[in-house]
Specification:
There is one protein chain. This protein has 209 residues and is of the alpha/beta class. The protein has one domain (2-206): Flavodoxin domain (Rossmann fold, 3-Layer(aba) Sandwich), CATH 3.40.50.360. 38% of the residues lie in helices and 22% in strands. It has helices spanning 15-29, 65-74, 91-99, 117-120, 143-153, 177-206, and strands spanning 2-7, 33-38, 77-83, 104-107, 110-116, 124-131, 156-164. The chain has a five-stranded parallel sheet, sandwiched between helices. Helix 1 packs parallel to helix 6 (177-206). It starts with a strand and ends with a helix. Bound molecules: flavin mononucleotide (FMN). Residues 9, 11, 14-17, 83-87, 131-134, 139, 141, 167-168, 170 line the site of flavin mononucleotide (FMN).
């Protein structure tokens, strides 16, 4: 089982990074093969809407997103983390998500009929972690949904949405036991869900259904 963690903050020792790493570490302890990427290490252009991906499910823009696509194809589960920037996800996370449009497929004669390659492959699983400074959840705005809604459209069932408030200074998350606990739970739930899926797949084979 492969789990990919994606950090959408440029602060490598920031709160999002700490919490995604906490979730990833649990996944590793539970036996998953894990990889953590910081979007700030990659140069990711904005989607141009050229539709050049629609025949092959491959984006034609030749930038660092080409290094991330294989990781997404291989991963059974992903953990996306973003800080709140003005009630929404960071620009890096938005660019990354938009470039996943290459995985969406539309019926030629009716664009209201669509699915994702992940759905065609049987579906995948995800968790999201959103981090903000303010005390009121409304000040987090759309951050969690701005990750979970596209993930669902991309064929991932979001098994946990972690919303962490009141974190400002980089790394403060490491002193926030509740935040760490919620993030660990997300990593654990993600791995357990994928293990359960594998068990059910095996059982179906055994029962020759
Ligand atoms: C450009 C910018 C916009 C922000 N907008 C919000 C906001 O709308 N609501 C909020 O509660 N915090 C906001 N914050 C605070 C960050 O979400 C907070 O400091 C978070 O802990 C940063 O995460 P990081 O350490 O992973 O980078 C903003 C920070 C920046 C730099």
């Amino acid at each position: 089982m492969k789990i990919l963690g994606v950090v959408g903050s440029k602060r490598k020792k920031g709160n999002t990074s700490c919490l995604v790493q906490e979730a990833i570490q649990v996944a590793k302890n539970e036996g998953a093969e894990t990889e953590l990427i910081f979007l700030s290490d990659y140069s990711i252009q904005d989607c141009t809407g050229c539709e050049g991906c629609k025949e092959t499910f491959k984006c034609i823009i030749n930038d660092d997103m080409q290094k991330i696509y294989p990781l997404l194809w291989e991963a059974d589960g992903i953990i996306l983390g973003s800080p709140t920037y003005f009630y929404n996800i960071s620009a890096d996370m938005k660019a990354f998500i938009d470039r996943c449009y290459s995985f969406e497929v539309f019926a030629e004669d009716d664009r209201s009929c669509w699915l994702s390659v992940n759905e065609a492959l049987g579906g995948k699983y995800a968790a999201v972690i959103a981090v903000c400074e303010q005390q009121d959840e409304k000040d987090m705005g759309f951050t969690p949904e701005a990750m979970s809604k596209p993930l669902e459209a991309l064929g991932y069932r979001v098994v946990d949405t972690v919303k962490i408030l009141r974190l400002f200074e980089a790394g403060e998350a490491l002193k926030d036991n509740e935040a760490l606990k919620h993030s660990r739970k997300a990593g654990e739930r993600l791995v357990k869900t994928i293990k359960l899926r594998q068990e059910v797949e095996n059982k179906i084979k055994e029962l020759k259904m």
